[in-house]
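Practice problem 4.
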């Protein structure tokens, strides 16, 4: 049995597999199907300072080997989270991580400060890469200045592990990663969804209510692996890789590209137990290849 223990800055995980934000609710919704405590980390739904309704329906559509969504960060706001959700999840013995989003550096920071006060939340993932909201979201994540401004504002008020989630919808994701590292990020996670569009040819209209949406699932995996490889070469902080991971084989690709941990998103909709199966599969692959620990293969690509 290989050692799957993984450290991401101040965060220690029993294995390197986390759930991706927006695809696993608050974990509780999946508790009947999977033992949450066997998952390395659970990144909960996108959380904002104020409640958000999200976008109109339709906001999801299937594509070849993937899907598009434009949910638009629907959530009841951070105060509701602190009062009603946190008490329900704080004693689950895994790392519960909050995905924080906002419309301005100030409201990102205010939201992060409220989560900082919660003893049972050891890390946040800062979403500067959501393509489905009008204000903020991806707007900050597509320039080095915008990304650095938000990260600096949050770093001032947040003293636990700060993971910054990057957008692939940029010219150089490595430049954005370097900017957030310099601004105080402890780790980066990538990728968020790729901007896409599907058209109903009979109606001659976009299928999604806001025309475009974020693409995820197996079809995006080669893009995500390429991004992880480029970013891991550029930064000195840990990289968390995600995008299209369906099984342990996919996860190993991300480790070789330079990811220290991974997240699984869309695959949870197909198999709610996929995270635990992937953790087991990583272990089997490491054993079969004579590796003592997952850390041994991180970045070990012959390229
Ligand atoms: C329905 C849905 C909702 C999402 N909501 C969020 C969110 O609130 N915050 C965020 O950072 N990413 C969100 N994402 C993006 C995922 O966390 C992940 O980055 C992306 O789907 C790629 O991984 P995957 O191919 O494994 O799904 C969402 C994705 C989907 C499919």
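Answer key:
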């Amino acid at each position: 049995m290989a050692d799957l223990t993984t450290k991401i800055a101040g965060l220690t995980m029993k294995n390197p597999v986390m759930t991706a934000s927006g695809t696993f609710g608050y974990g509780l919704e999946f508790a009947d199907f999977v033992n949450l405590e066997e998952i390395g980390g659970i990144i909960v739904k996108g959380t904002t300072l104020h409640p958000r309704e999200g976008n109109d329906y339709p906001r999801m559509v299937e594509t070849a080997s993937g899907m598009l969504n434009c949910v638009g960060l629907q959530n009841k706001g951070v105060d509701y989270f602190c009062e009603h959700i946190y008490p329900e999840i704080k004693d689950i013995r895994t790392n519960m991580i909050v995905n924080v989003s906002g419309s301005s550096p100030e409201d990102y920071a205010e939201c992060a400060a409220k989560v900082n006060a919660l003893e049972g939340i050891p890390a946040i993932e800062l979403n500067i890469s959501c393509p489905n909201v009008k204000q903020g979201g991806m707007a900050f994540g597509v320039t080095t200045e915008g990304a650095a401004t938000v990260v600096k504002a949050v770093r001032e008020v947040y003293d636990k592990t700060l993971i910054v989630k990057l957008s692939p919808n940029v010219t150089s994701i490595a430049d954005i990663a370097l900017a957030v590292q310099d601004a105080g990020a402890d780790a980066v996670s990538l990728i968020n969804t790729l901007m896409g569009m599907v058209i109903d040819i009979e109606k001659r209209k976009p299928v999604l209510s806001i025309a475009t949406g974020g693409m995820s699932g197996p079809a995006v995996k080669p893009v995500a692996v390429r991004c992880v490889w480029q970013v891991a070469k550029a930064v000195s902080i840990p990289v968390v890789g995600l995008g299209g991971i369906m099984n342990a084989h996919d996860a190993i690709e991300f480790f070789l590209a330079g990811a220290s941990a991974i997240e699984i998103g869309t695959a949870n909709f197909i198999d709610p137990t996929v995270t635990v199966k992937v953790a087991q599969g990583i272990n089997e692959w490491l054993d079969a290849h004579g590796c003592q620990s997952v850390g041994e293969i991180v970045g070990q690509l012959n390229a």
